[in-house]
Amino acid sequence: MHITLESDYAVRIVYCLAQNGGRLDAASIAEQTGVTLRFSLKILRKLVAGELVKSYKGAGGGYELARDPHEISLYEVIEQVEGPYAISRCLNEEGYDCNRNRQACMECKFVRIYADISEMVRKRLEGISFGDVLEQP
Predict the structure, then answer these.
(1) Which of 22, 56, 69, 81 could form a disulfide with 18 if both were Cys (CB 3.0 to 4.6 A apart)?
(2) Res. 137: pLDDT tops 70
(3) What angle do CA 126, 130, 136 make, to 5 degrees?
(4) Which alpha helices (H) appear in 34-109, and where do they start and end?
């Protein structure tokens, strides 16, 4: 199991902005993160919509973090790109219809296990800010 490439890139982009500490244009972000300009712009739009990043237009335009890096968690960035994290589709996918034989098991015992694991992952990701990552040796 792994996070999507888009989430990985979003984390790289936010970390790049955190490291820079100021405004960067999209081309510089793309170059520094190794993410194509087109994909960077797509991700930046999502991060701006989620109020994690500010966008500035014009000659001196670019992007910068909307808040201090210590106030932005890994979970916020991943959630902005992917939606709420869940280890299994049955936990949060709208319209998902479990194909298990409900008459045989009456209730799925795995949904509780998956919910507990998903909550542990969410809490761990919420507990790590980009400021924390910047301070790591």
Answers:
(1) 69
(2) yes
(3) 110
(4) 37-49, 74-82, 89-92, 102-105
